[in-house]
Amino acid sequence: MKPYTYFISDLHLSAQRPDITACLASFLSDQALGADALYVLGDLFEYWIGDDDRNEFSEHVASLFKQFSQTGVPIYFIHGNRDFLIREKFARRAGMTILNQQHVIDLYGTPTLLMHGDELCTLDLAYQKFRKKARGWWWPRMILNLPLWVRRKIAEKGRKTSQQNQQKLSMEIMDVTSAEVVNYMQEYNVQQLIHGHTHRPAIHQLEVNSKPALRIVLGDWYDQGSMLKITPKSIDLISADLTTPP
Ligand code: MN
Fold first, then answer.
1. Architecture of domain 5-239 in this structure
2. What secondary structure letter does DSSP report for 49?
3. How much is the pTM?
């Protein structure tokens, strides 16, 4: 079989949507089998309040990934803006490796920068301020020390506020800032970038360092069934039909 690598992001899994978790289970026991690697580029969960919030749902998701990793496919994870509190304990249970928020891989000879993509939306100043705090050292530590029920309340409140904010923000503010894309690609010296977060699947051609470059954007999983399959010769941004029960 030809070598290939899969990328998914923005699954937004939750106990309330068993259907999309079932689609993940079917993907992991079918198309993804035999891949060179699987990259989950953030927002795997609708929200995550700590690895100690162990319940039937989170254990089930962990076991799906764990079983998949045991077939020999390495799983890599980059935090999203909803699950940046995922730590080593969960990663170990799920058989995945957590990468830095920006990470360069050699993708069949093409150096490729991977990220969730929220760091590219720099016009949303309020969010970027929160992001700085949330990805720092003291805020997550403080939050993770609170009792689970308090964290759950904070997460629910945060989701409501962010929904209200998103309604107020223009489409432009919620998309990536082009100059920021180029900055990151120059900083990491790459001509290829893969990210999610915006839920706007597309393959954009651009110019970085006066050379042609690609920005591949994954869509979401829970609505668009978006997945990206890359082989040494092809880039396939797929929209799977999630309505057919697996
Ligand atoms: Mn996101």
1. 4-Layer Sandwich (3.60)
2. -
3. 0.95
